[in-house]
């Protein structure tokens, strides 16, 4: 049975400018999956999930993300490489063109949903999609209103999403044919020219990173969160690939969310209704929760298959290394819904240090915590060409600079106050290399990282001996349950100790250089937490 198409009168209520007579409104995941298959835009894998390709773009494009510069944003937004200004006239022009494009399309999908699990901060969203599978992404990732709530649904923000629409950079004020544009005044996000679904969720995240701290006194955070059996909450900050999604899916704890949260005076809450996990090298034994979430309703992006089968080859990087799956939060067996929980007792800063310098687990003072939060360090492996093995340091303020419209100190000050007020423990976890840098050492085993986090959360690191890192100053436990002692001190894992000392100082120089721009807006306690380069 084909799914019902909305009639035109009903459509008028949806969005006045959307005159396309073929609108699929609020379809369920089964129908969206079936439609995608029928339109030959996806296939079902052997566990029943819908697998699609997002097209030319398989990741976000930070250089093509704009904020309309107008009376609202001009003096409040921190204009930088991630917050690029665009004139309002281009926003209107592109919105008009996109609506024309969608009105002349054969069909359009519309979905009402919301962000922010705490009803006090709930933000209703209407998403308009060119394809059924991107509408399924919106279903999976945003929060889903009940039938009752839909009756009188008033949307506040609109997302117009058309991967097939391309801007003309000469006329439309963009850099390339693809773009993501946010207008705070018109409460609209335009995404065109890219099918990468992540732009949809990170667009709303950017909006919330403005509204919540700026207007509602809520700290917005690029972090995952979970809750122990005694109600204790942990949050995990970290840049892409550092382990937010992987480490928050812990069978011993309830999952609150894997990427975006708010911290109020009373609680923390998830912005989203789903998770967006990496699939590269996904393995049932190491990450059973995520592996088993790949089932009917899940949307898998850009994976390869074993030849002649519909079985996903998780090792394949044929399309991209950034293979992904989105699924509703409750696909993780012990998810907490509604995703609201107490003020955190423990904060983890995750970094994937491909230099192999930072300890696998360490404890930070308040000053060090602020210094590390503002620095937002991780080190990726540069390039995938053969022979290129040098890691590349990335510093991204508050572990999320691409999504933060306000100055970093705006978020840092809020976090600093909250950490002091609630006496939160702050840990730094290196989920990256030990025993040498990339190419020499190896990435620390996931089970050891999990064991270290479990030990920290259960208080089993409270009464052990610590030593101080000679360059970075954090405290390193000398013992940790279920982890070989030889792994804890990074220097001891390197064969060549003087090379370690040398590389540690080099990394310290990068930290210090990066921090120069913040010197004016932080206090001495934070400044004195800088690493020692000599
Ligand atoms: P994003 O912001 O892009 O969603 P993320 O912080 O959620 O990124 P994950 O998706 O959790 O990052 O990615 C961590 C990846 O690293 C996973 O593929 C995981 O299997 C792998 N990994 C390997 N070793 C470890 C480790 N010791 N700790 C954490 N993750 C590890
Ligand atoms: Mn993630």
The 3D shape can be described as globular
Task: Compute the CA-based radius of gyration.
Answer: 23 Å
Which band does the percent of strand residues land in? 15-25%
Q: What characterizes the major β-sheet?
A: 9 strands, mixed
**Helix count from the secondary structure assignment:** 15
**Whole-number mean pLDDT:** 95
Hetero groups in this structure are: adenosine-5'-triphosphate, manganese (II) ion
Residue stretches low in confidence (pLDDT < 50, at least 5 long) are none
Topology:
Blueprint: H1 8-14, E1 23-25, H2 29-38, E2 42-44, E3 50-52, E4 65-68, E5 84-86, H3 88-103, E6 108-115, E7 123-129, H4 132-141, H5 147-151, E8 157-162, H6 169-172, E9 179-183, E10 188-192, H7 198-216, E11 219-227, E12 233-238, H8 244-248, E13 254-257, E14 260-263, E15 268-270, E16 274-278, H9 288-291, E17 299-301, E18 304-305, E19 312-313, E20 324-328, E21 340-341, E22 346-351, E23 361-364, H10 366-375, E24 377-381, E25 391-395, H11 408-422, E26 425-430, E27 433-434, E28 442-443, H12 446-457, E29 466-468, E30 475-477, H13 490-493, H14 497-515, H15 524-527
Parallel strand pairs: 1-6, 3-17, 4-5, 4-9, 7-8, 8-10, 12-22, 22-26
Antiparallel strand pairs: 2-3, 6-7, 9-10, 11-12, 11-13, 11-14, 14-15, 15-21, 16-20, 17-20, 18-19, 23-26, 24-25, 27-28, 29-30
This protein binds adenosine-5'-triphosphate (ATP) and manganese (II) ion.
Structure description:
With 534 residues, the chain is α/β, with parallel strands linked by helices. It has 15 helices and 30 strands. The termini are far apart. The mean pLDDT is 95. Bound molecules: adenosine-5'-triphosphate and manganese (II) ion (MN).
């Amino acid at each position: 049975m084909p799914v019902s198409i909305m009639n035109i009168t009903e459509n008028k209520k949806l969005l006045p400018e959307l005159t396309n007579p073929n609108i699929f409104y609020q379809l369920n995941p089964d129908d969206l999956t079936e439609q995608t298959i029928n339109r030959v835009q996806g296939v079902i894998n052997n566990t029943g999930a819908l697998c699609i390709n997002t097209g030319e773009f398989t990741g976000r494009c930070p250089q093509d993300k704009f904020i309309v510069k107008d009376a609202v944003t001009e003096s409040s937004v921190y204009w930088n490489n991630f917050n690029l200004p665009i004139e309002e006239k281009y926003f209107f022009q592109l919105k008009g063109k996109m609506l024309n494009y969608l009105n002349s399309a054969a069909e359009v999908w519309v979905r009402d949903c919301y962000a922010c699990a705490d009803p006090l901060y709930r933000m209703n969203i209407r998403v308009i999609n060119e394809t059924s599978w991107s509408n399924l992404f919106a279903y999976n990732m945003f929060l889903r209103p009940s039938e009752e709530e839909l009756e009188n649904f008033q949307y506040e923000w609109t997302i117009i999403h058309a991967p097939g629409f391309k801007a003309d950079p000469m006329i439309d004020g963009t850099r390339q044919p693809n773009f993501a544009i946010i207008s705070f005044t018109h409460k609209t996000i335009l995404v065109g020219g890219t099918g990468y679904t992540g732009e949809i969720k990170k667009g709303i995240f950017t909006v919330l990173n403005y509204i919540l701290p700026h207007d509602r006194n809520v700290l917005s955070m690029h972090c995952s969160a979970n809750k122990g059996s005694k109600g204790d909450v942990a949050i995990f900050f970290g840049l892409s690939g550092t382990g937010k999604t992987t480490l928050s899916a812990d069978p011993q704890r309830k999952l609150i969310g894997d990427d975006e949260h708010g911290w109020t005076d009373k609680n923390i809450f998830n912005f989203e209704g789903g998770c967006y996990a990496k699939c590269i090298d996904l393995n049932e034994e190491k990450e059973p929760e995520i592996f088993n979430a790949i089932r009917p309703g899940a949307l898998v992006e850009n994976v390869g298959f074993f030849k002649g089968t519909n079985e996903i080859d998780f090792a394949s990087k044929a399309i991209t290394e950034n293979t992904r799956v989105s699924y509703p939060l409750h696909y993780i067996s012990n998810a907490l819904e509604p995703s609201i929980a107490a003020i955190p007792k423990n904060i983890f800063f995750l970094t994937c240090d491909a230099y192999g310098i930072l300890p696998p687990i360490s404890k930070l003072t308040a000053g060090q915590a602020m210094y590390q939060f503002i620095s937002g360090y991780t080190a990726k492996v540069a390039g995938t060409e053969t022979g290129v093995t040098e890691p590349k340091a990335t510093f991204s303020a508050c572990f999320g600079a691409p999504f933060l419209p306000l100055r970093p100190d705006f978020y840092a000050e809020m976090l600093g106050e909250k950490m002091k007020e609630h006496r939160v423990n702050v840990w730094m976890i290196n989920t990256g290399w030990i025993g040498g840098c990339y190419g020499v050492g190896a990435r620390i085993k996931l089970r050891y990282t999990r064991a270290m986090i479990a030990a920290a959360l259960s208080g089993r690191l409270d009464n052990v001996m610590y030593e101080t890192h000679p360059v970075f100053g954090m405290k390193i436990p000398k013992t940790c349950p279920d982890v070989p002692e030889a792994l804890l001190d990074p220097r001891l894992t390197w064969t060549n100790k003087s090379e370690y000392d040398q590389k540690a100082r080099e990394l310290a120089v990068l930290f210090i250089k990066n921090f120069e721009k913040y010197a004016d807006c932080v206090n001495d306690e934070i400044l004195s937490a800088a690493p020692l380069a000599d």
